[in-house]
Amino acid sequence: MSNAAVTSAPAITLPAAGERELRLDLFRGLALWLIFIDHLPANILTWFTIRNYGFSDATEIFIFISGYTAAFVYGRAMLESGFVIATARIMRRVWQIYVAHVFLFTIFLAEISYVATNFNNPLYSEEMGIMDFLKQPDVTIIQALLLRFRPVNMDVLPLYIVLMLFLPLILWLMKWRPDVSLALSVALYAATWHFDLYLSAYPNGFWAFNPFAWQLLFVFGAWCALGGAERMSAILSSRITMWICIAYLLAAFFVTLTWHIPQLSRFMPKLVEQWMYPITKTDLDVLRFAHFLALAALTVRFLHKDWPGLKSPWLRPLILCGQHSLEIFCLGVFLAFAGHFVLAEISGGAGLHFLISVVGVLIMSGMAWVISWYKHSADKNASKKKGAVGNADMAGGG
Amino acid sequence: MKSNPVMILGLTLIAGLLAVAPVRAEDAPANCEVPAYLLTSESKLPKVETAIAGDRRLEILVVGSRSSTIAASEASAYPGRLQVMLKEALPKVAVNVSVELQVKKTAEEVAGGLVKLVEVRKPTLVIWQTGTYDAIRSIDPDDFRAGVEEGVAALQKAGADVILMNLQYSPRTETMISAPPYLDNMRVVAQQHDVPLFDRFSMMRHWSDAGDFDLSSTSHGPDLAKRVHDCLGRALSKFVIDAAHVNPAQQN
Fold first, then answer.
1. How many CB atoms lie within 10 A of CB A90?
2. pTM for the whole thing?
3. Where are the alpha helices (DSSP H) in B164-199?
4. Nearest to B129 by CA among B72, B73, B190
5. Using the beta-carbon criterion (under 8 Å), do B218 and A118 form an inter-chain contact?
6. B93-120 pLDDT per residue, tens
7. How far apart are the first and last CA of chain B?
8. Measured between CB atoms, does A309 come within 8 Å of chain B?
9. How many CB pairs under 8 A join A and B?
10. Contact B198/B239 with Cβ under 8 angstroms?
11. Which of A365, B21, B97, B155 is the most exposed place for a label (fewest CB within 10 A)?
């Protein structure tokens, strides 16, 4: 069936249906772990997250792979069942993500209400001003449902929702001319910077991840999934590309080093500093995007699709987490809340910090294992009746 | 589930820590060492230097929000402590620290009124503590940066030395208030305008990590606030003296 799909659509190509890209699952799983660790207060494990060694961080990986898998899953649906059916499936997914976001928001509300009633230290009387929005729950909750009010660390899912909403359009364009679609995406990115496009937030400010800018990574992921990666293989395997990537990553590493060791900053030319800073995450700074590209290019070069290690039981937890990304992402956000809470209640120092991170990662892996058990064993009969295609979650979620 | 043995281990550890915690809280040492790199700045305070060496008069104005004071015991807040410690360190200099509270104002709103303040009070040094209210209101970090830049430029033009002071480290509200964009932008402005940045956030986090203070404490009394402000005042006085290139021994 996959061969038929490929021949009927000359513009884009899809890998064969049975082939599961374990590398994608692996790195999305890794991104989820890193996002969780970065959401906790800094501890030893934070030093292992990539944001300390360069410009980009786990969010880039997550959004890129989400674009890749979403295009892969729903692109196939669009080729096989048409635009309407694919759109319907995408919308069901959007709804799931939305519900997940609202669920996390209720947990956040519970936490903040607890702090508001129990914590009243004069040292922080100013910071407690954040509780003011509890005085107007009617407005706040409506704004949260509209995705305009987002607590700290709850910005990724709204971005994801908006990107998925536009996925039918993206796929439709890709089916027509993939390269033109990518060019349009780059144009929108450039326009975002030039005209300062943004989505406003409540009570003021704007979305912490600007969808107009971040769509570039998502669309680029989709473009790669639909044959772009194959067409780029000559560039990716060239030695020149490799050395450019290595040089860029090293330069980025040095710059990040100056953040952690202020004494080094005197070696930074003032002109470079002025040109470079601030490296904004909100609008996906070009330096961040380039950093992600360099990382991805080197990864693809040195980690082969059929590397036997991908099947090893040691990487199994990561891969399982990556395969159930929505659930594990939400769990991660919840665990980060819970971790903050435990750390505030019990002043345990670095040891407890470390313990919480490790326990969180274990819970995420355990949960991923349970979900996969549900899908493969508990729901076996149901999925047989539905047929092989229907379920987006089976294929990695999108 | 897989995590069971680990959970048990975790709970055991937590129980152990709980048993230790109260002892540590009672010790309450005002032991708050600050790593040297937080107390030094490459930017200088030339006007403070001449004021100390020449005029023997040092007029400092703290412009800040509510975290620059402690309700009902203002003298114990860091500006008051700063005055005491500077006088101790520089006995031959007439040091005066005054405070101008700008409560519930964004950096941009405060910046507009700074020149007038300087004209009236004529300080040698303005310590501008800002960022918290902007972070609470999640003001656009670009607007925030523009506001801080405007304020710093205005102060420099009006003839005062400037120190920027960033947010407090507040573990309880870490999941609610996003400090990093505001911390980063203050660092950028400080660098670009060659102004020393007093990194209150990193200091308080250091004290918290080192176990000097339990900043998550639910206690309602002013005791913790007083001890933290005392340490902040101490660090700030060292910071001012270092950035002004004054050797306190010479002054005695």
1. 23
2. 0.81
3. 180-192
4. B190
5. yes
6. 999 999 999 999 999 999 999 999 999 9
7. 68
8. no
9. 151
10. yes
11. B21
Residue in A51, A123, A192 to test binding to B, most B beta-carbons within 10 Å = A123
- Indicate the helix (H) or strand (E) that contains A180: helix A178-195
Query: Mean pLDDT highest for which of A41-55, B10-24, B53-67?
Result: B53-67
Q: Assign residue B28 a region: left if phi > 0, alpha if psi is -120 to 50, beta otherwise?
A: left
Q: Give the burial string for A143-170 (b: 16+ CB within 10 Å, else e).
A: bbeebbbbbbbbbbbbbbbbbbeebbeb
pLDDT for position A382 = 57
User: Are B21 and A118 in contact (CB < 8 Å)?
Assistant: no
For chain A positions 314-373, those within 8 Å of chain B (CB to CB) are 336-337, 340, 342-352, 355-356, 358-359, 362-363, 365-366, 369-370
A96-134 confidence digits (pLDDT tens) = 999 999 999 998 888 888 888 888 888 998 998 888 877
Outline where chain B has alpha helix (H).
4-27, 36-39, 46-50, 78-89, 107-121, 132-136, 141-157, 180-192, 200-210, 223-243, 248-251
Mean predicted lDDT score pLDDT of chain B: 86
ipTM above 0.85, yes or no: no
Residues of chain B neighbouring A206 (CB-CB closer than 8 A): 140
Tell me the CA distances in angstroms from A252 to A248, A259, A290, B104, B118, one per residue in order: 6, 11, 10, 38, 41
To the nearest whole angstrom, how far is the Cα of B150 from the nearest Cα of chain A?
Answer: 17
Q: Is the Cβ of A274 closer than 8 Å to some Cβ of chain B?
A: yes
> How far apart, in whole angstroms, are the C-alpha atoms of residue A145 and residue B154?
42
The set of residues, in sequence order, having a beta carbon less than 8 Å from that of B36 and lying 6+ positions away, is none
